[in-house]
Design a protein that fits this description.
By secondary structure, the chain is an all-alpha fold. The strands form 2 sheets. It has a two-stranded antiparallel sheet with strand order 1-2. It has a domain of about 140 residues: AhpD-like. It contains 18 helices and 4 strands.
Length: about 400
Amino acid sequence: MTATAHRPPTAREDVVGALAELDPATAEARLAKPEVVEHTQRAHDHLFTDPGRLSPALRRALAARVAEQHGAPGLAQEHHRHDPVDLAVATADESVAALVRHADLLSLAPALVTPDDVAALTAAGLDADGIVLLSQVVAVTAYEARLVTGLRLLAGHDDDGATPAPAADLPARAKYAPDLAPGGLPVPRAYTRELLGWLPWVEPIPTQELTDEHRAAFAGKSDGAYFRLLARETGVLAARTQIDHAVFLTRVGLPRAERELAAAVTSKVNDCIFCASVHARKAAQLSKRPADVDRLLAADVPRGPGWAPADLSALSAGQDERWAAVIDLAAALAASPSRATAGHVARLRELGLEPVELVDLVASVAFFSWANRLMLTLGEPHLPADSPATTAPTTPSGETR
C-alpha cells in the first residue's frame, strides 16, 4: 500500500463539512486535525463505491434511513440525491426486508442484537464480507450524523425545528445477556474498568490469510479477531484507523482523559460494556480520578421502549462542573436521535473550552457511536478465562487501540 501525504478534502469532497455549514471559528478548529476530515471522507467514499454483496444504491437507501433515524435530515438528503433504492418497494423482497430490520436494530438499539439476528443475515444472502459491509453502512452513518449534528451546534445553527426522526418497528425484547459466552466463558454483568475479552459472531479473516493491505488497514493495532473481522471491508477500516489515531492519540484538542471520558459516556448510552471498560480504564489512568470514573460506570440509565435511554441525568451526578458539562453534552449527542442543544455548548464555552476542544469532544462521541455499533453487533464480551463469573445483576445500561 503506497503512503500518501495528508490532504484535507476540498469543500466539494467534504460531505460532513458542507452539511454542517461551518462558521469560520469551527472550520478552523476542525482543521487542527486534518486527518479526521480527510479520512472521514475517505470512509464515506469507500462505503458507497467499494464492490460488495450490497449494491451502492441499496447502501445509500439504508444510510438515508439511518441518517433520518439519527435526526440528520441533511445527511439523508445527501444520500437521496444519488437515486438510492426505494425501500418501500424493495422490502417486498423478504431478503431486503431482513436487511432493513437488522439495520434498524443496529442503528437504534445495538445492545439488543443477538447472534441469531446475525445468523439471519446469512439466510438473507449475506456472507461474512456482506455482514461487515452492512454493519459499517449503519455505524459510519451514525458517526457522520453526530459529526454533522454536533458541528452544526458549534457553528450556531438552531435545528430545533427539524423534522422529527421517524420511529422504527423494533422487536420487544430485553438486552442480549447470555449466561455464558461461547466456549463456556463467563460474561460481565456490570460495568467495570477491568480487562475484558471479545468473541466474534462472524468469522474473521484467518491470520495466515491476511494480506499486506489488510495489515496496513489496522497498522498499530492488534491482529486479534476484531480487526481481522473489520478488515473484510479494508478501505473503510484503513480510514477508520487513521480517524481513531487522530482523535484519540494526538496532543491537539481536548485533554486526552476527557476524550476517553467521552468515549466511556457514549458507551454507557449505547450500553456497550466492552468499550466502556477500555475507555473508562484509560480515563481513570490519565485523569488520576478513578473514583469519578467509577461513579460514571455505576450510574443507572433507565431504558424505555427499544432500549432507548429514558433519562441521562444520572451520568453526570456527583462530578465537578467541567466533567459534568462534558458528560452531559457527550451523553446527549450520543443518544439516538441526538438530544444535544445549544445550551450544552454554551455551558462548555462558559467553562472555557476552546473551539478545538469542542470539535474534539464532538469527534470523540461520534467515533464511539460508530465503534459501539460494531462491538455490540458483531460479537460479545467475556471475562478472562480465569475470572469467576460475575453474579451481580446486569446494569441497565471497546475496543482497544
